[in-house]
Amino acid sequence: MTDGWNWRQPDGPPASAYPPMSAVPSGGAPVGSPGSGAPVPSPWWSDGSRDPWRDPRTPAAVVVTPARGAGASIDPEPVTDPDAVQRRGLTPLILVSLITALLAGSLGGALGYAFAVRGGGTGSGTVLGAPGTGAPGVAQRPRDSMAGVAERLRPSVVTVRVGGRGGTSVGSGFVVSADGYVITNDHVVAGGSGSATVVFSDGSTSPAKVIGQDAEADIAVIKTTRTGLAPVEFGDSEAIAVGDPVLAFGSPLALANTVTAGIVSALDRTIQAGEPGGQVRYYAAIQTDAAVNQGNSGGPLVDGAGRVIGVNSVIKSLASDEEEAGNIGLAFAVPINQAKRLTQEIIDTGKARRTVIGAQLSNAATGAGAGVRLAGVDRGGPAATAGLRAGDVILKFDGRPLEGPGDLIALIRKYAPGSVVAVEYRRGTAQQNASVTLAADAK
Questions:
Q1: pLDDT(364) > 80
Q2: What positions does the domain PDZ occupy (predicted)?
Q3: 0.90 exceeded by pTM
């Protein structure tokens, strides 16, 4: 169906020339027909020529679309504007954005890594490593580990500086009482003026005074003016065994707060030391392979539990000159049982007692196990009381074989006066045994 504005009936006048049937009166000409003299009305509007919404000269069509079913609405035909910009799908846009992001991330990561490597990571914002569970910057170690022992002992170890004619000598020492007593070696303070300076592990210093010395046993006691100090814990030098782990503390070569590790290499290693014409020192020492050098003298040798078992005193070296001597894994310490006893006597009385057997000694022969000959025996002394006589050869002292007088003296000095010691000796061709009660000398 088309509207009546432009439809023409074939071979006839246009339909607009005919009024609707309802408009034809009976028996007369149709209203509005030519010749009727009346205007022809619009079939759509009462006055279509004055309709403001359309131009009568513009063709129009009314199209009826087929019904889509009962109750279905009639949708208008979609209209496409040819001049409008065609809208594209979102897929290309998403792909482009994703690729751009990946490229930017890769470039940023590469630049960040390069800057971190070149500049040490400063300001990169990247945190390296996993967070720890302990205190920041502080390693947590067991109390009985080597590091734990070193941490506990360090405040009790000091550097001892003594001025003398030849300059200032440097050694080590350790605090044995809260009121300032310090153990060191006699050879550290020997030749000084009787005063010293103690340097603590934190770098602070304190003047000190020499209280007393045992030159032969190489033990000296000094006292600082500082109190409230942390003393060491003493161990038992008779309870240690070869192979036990040890730590040596001190200031080797003037390097303060040094700790070295090793094991007990031997026990009762008898040593006779001293410069020609000078003081002779005797050691029934604890031997260790811990690195010990000049300046370690007087420092503590401690066991695995952090208890002091010896006083580092002397080293063996291949160098003939003492100034050139260095560690070769053979160091020796005065047993702490001996050093503690001498220190207590010095503090209490101002001097230490020497332990003696009451006899004059000489070499019996040369070679291992040759023994020590008694050149003379003091009347009423320990040897005479035990039944020994001049000419007897002592082969073993407390079960230890003897090679010369130095061995016997070193072992005797280790024991306190009043100690009872087993002695094996030879008289003529017969070997005999005796028990000797050692005594203090009369000096």
A1: no
A2: 346-404
A3: no
